[in-house]
Amino acid sequence: MSLQPYVNKKVLVITADGRTLTGNLLSCDQLTNLVLGQTIERVIRPSDDPEPSTEVSHGLYLIRGENVAICGLVDEDLDGQIEWTQVRGSVVGGVKHV
To answer: Is the pTM of this model over 0.85?
Structure first.
C-alpha cells in the first residue's frame, strides 16, 4: 500500500525500536523512507513510573524505511482532546527481524 494519500496529513509512526512519533507527512518513497514536519515524540511512561509522560518536539524528522513498524493517519479532533502528559501505558517493544 502506498502512503501517498497520507502526504500533507498528520500521521503517527511507531518505529522498530518502539518510539512513537507524530507529525505532518511531507514526503515518502517506495522504501517507506518518511519525512515528517512538526514532529513530536510521545514518551508514554508506565503507571509505576513517578515521572510524567512527555512530548518532545523534534521539528523536521527523517525516518528510514527499515525503521518504520506502523504508519497511520491521526484523528486530529480526538488527538487534540487527549492530555498526553497524563497518559500511562506499557512500553511498546521493538521489532525483531529474522
So the answer is: yes
